[in-house]
Amino acid sequence: MWRRFKKNKLAVGGAIIVVIFFIISLLTPILSSHEPNAQNLLERLAPPSARHLFGTDELGRDVFSRILWGSRISLKVGFVAVGIFIFIGTLLGAISGYYGGWIDNFIMRLVDIMLCFPDFFLILMVIAVLEPNINYVMAVIGLVSWTGVARLVRAEFLKLKKQEFVEAARASGLSDMRIIFRHILPNAIAPVLIAATLGVASAILVESGLSFLGLGVQPPTPSWGNILTSGKDYLLHGAWWLSVFPGLAIFITVLSYNLLGEGLRDAMDPRLK
Amino acid sequence: MIMWNYIARRLFMMIPVLFGITIITFIVIHLAPGSPTDIVAQAGPKVSFEARERLTKLYGLDQPLHIQYLNWLKRFIKLDFGSSFKDDRPVMEKILERLPATLFLEGLSLFLIFLIAIPVGVLSAARQYSIFDKFTTILVFIGVSVPSFWLALLLMISFGVKLNWLPISGMRSIGSEYLPIWARTIDYTKHLIMPVFVSAFGGIASLSRYTRAGMLEAIRQDYIRTARAKGLSENVVIYKHALRNALLPVITIVGFSIPGLIGGSFIIETIFAWPGMGRLGYLAIMERDYPLIMGVGAVAAFLTLLGNLVADILYAWADPRVRYK
């Protein structure tokens, strides 16, 4: 499997960028050239220069440093939100697939209902009704996006529970919980891992969209999405650097997680290759 | 006859889902800290205690939660979502006057998605590993990874501000209604280009990937080997035998892409100041206009449900096996 993954140049590229961005976000305090929130009204909306690599925003803050600090926010949101939805999705999917019957029916109807709401609007609605802050954003993205994982895990469980090793586990008198989590789940982990990788990409996209609309991470805390809001507000001033650089950061991050996720899928499920 | 049975069964299955939609919408709104009357009171600080009492009575906020829900549900069935906090106009009226703009924009995008994605997906599967296939694979990754609002900003900067070719907001220019018909058509088309392109972009990428995967799977089936063994030409095998089977699941994508398009419309309509339901919903959220938020949410969910139903019926019509399940 590792060999198949290594042959996929795009996926390896994705993995490398994922690691680089991870290191960058860890080293942010060292790498950033300015305080992310330090205002300098004499240098408002300055184009990129040696002093301000990516220019400055409407308050004279250094965009390069803000993007670096924003990477921490984006990764945090990505990982926490994915952690939440993988947990919920795996748990509900496992119960649904293992027990079947009315409980399966109930959970799957719940999935149908959730799928009817445009994800983004549901998140928007909840965030707006509560108050926009990063913790709610992470929690809500997690609470809304679990349906896909639940379906995946359920399908795996339906397939696996009929196999002999499960019969054997049951015959030796193990509890349901033990069979579900120790015997079946480890065999169903591959698709979950892929979904998690792709999930980081979509969570980062959603967070940046929310922040862009002013419903995510609140200024002055820098996030890629809210820097883009300034980009939109100062579009007519020709301040292109406020739009180009943060967007590029989102794009490259999301792209690399997508490449990594798809690469993992191809490596684990070579049917389509 | 079987087809009607199938449709009836699907409609019946929609009932619990519809019920669930109303419950979720209701719960979300009641997550709000404080009472909706606070919002009304905020608008005018002079609103007296008596006036707030009256409002509380009017919205039934003094009733227990389940009674409130049942009352709300009764009105919901009659498509009465109450009136907007902001201007007191009926919510349904406000939504209905904006809905055509959204449906028009999303309909065009959907059309564009199918028009481009299916040939691209089919071709790249038919010529797997060719340069065309590799090129489109990369484009697909770019397509699903670009944030739509960033793409919109970039287009606005280059085609709107720098080159000044296309208008960056709205549906028509001011005063365009006095222009002759052809000039008006050009004006509308210019306003459409960027929003339609941006909202179709991600969809084109994911649908062409989906079509490619479907094609590749179809090509691997036994009947394809049979067709080849019969000595049919490669073109007939791929574009007739494989294509027909690969396109079946693509039909269901119509249903699945609707929530994505509607979800995207909130961002895209906001950026381009497109006077549709998405922008209405966004403004409602920013102003905490609860009846309007609930109305937009319910209509969006209902449209999605409708899209899924249509997709299922089309699928059953195209593939008789489904009807008997």
What do you see in this structure?
The complex is a heterodimer of chains A (about 270) and B (about 325). Chain A has about 270 residues and is mainly α. Chain A contains 13 helices and no strands. The radius of gyration of chain A is 22 Å and the shape is elongated. Chain A starts with a helix and ends in a 5-residue tail after the last helix. The mean pLDDT of chain A is about 85. Chain B is mostly helical and about 325 residues long. Chain B has 2 domains: about 1-75, no CATH class; about 100-320, MetI-like fold, CATH 1.10.3720. In chain B, helix 5 (about 90-125) packs antiparallel against helix 6, helix 5 (about 90-125) packs antiparallel against helix 10 and helix 6 crosses helix 8. Classes of the chains: A mainly alpha (about 270), B mainly alpha (about 325). The interface between A and B is large, with 46 and 52 residues.
Mind sketching the topology for me?
The complex is a heterodimer of chains A (273) and B (325).
Chain A: H1 2-7, H2 9-26, H3 28-31, H4 63-99, H5 101-116, H6 119-129, H7 134-144, H8 147-160, H9 164-171, H10 176-184, H11 189-212, H12 224-233, H13 241-268
Helix pairs in contact in A: 2-4, 2-13, 4-5, 4-7, 4-8, 4-11, 4-13, 5-8, 6-7, 7-11, 8-11, 9-10, 11-12, 11-13, 12-13
Chain B: H1 2-30, H2 36-43, H3 49-58, H4 65-77, H5 91-126, H6 131-145, H7 148-162, H8 181-219, H9 222-229, H10 234-271, H11 277-286, H12 290-318, H13 320-323
Helix pairs in contact in B: 1-12, 5-6, 5-8, 5-10, 5-12, 6-8, 7-8, 7-10, 8-10, 9-10, 10-11, 10-12, 11-12
Explain briefly what this protein structure is.
By secondary structure, chain A is mainly alpha-helical.
> Structural class from helices and strands of chain B?
mainly alpha
Q: What oligomerization state is this entry in?
A: heterodimer
- Which CATH class of the largest domain in chain B? Mainly Alpha
The main sheet of chain A comes to: none
Helix content of chain B: over 70%
Q: Name the structural class of chain A.
A: mainly alpha
- On the 0 to 100 scale, the average pLDDT of chain A is 84
**CATH superfamily annotation of the largest domain in chain B:** MetI-like
How far apart are the termini of chain B?
Answer: 15 Å
Alpha carbon gap, first and last residue of chain A: 13 Å
Strand share of the residues of chain B? under 5%
Most residues in contact: chain pair? A-B, 46 and 52 residues
What overall form of chain A do the CA principal axes indicate?
elongated
CATH architecture of the largest domain in chain B: Orthogonal Bundle
Order of helices and strands of chain A: HHHHHHHHHHHHH
Number of strands of chain A: 0
- The best one-word shape of chain B is globular
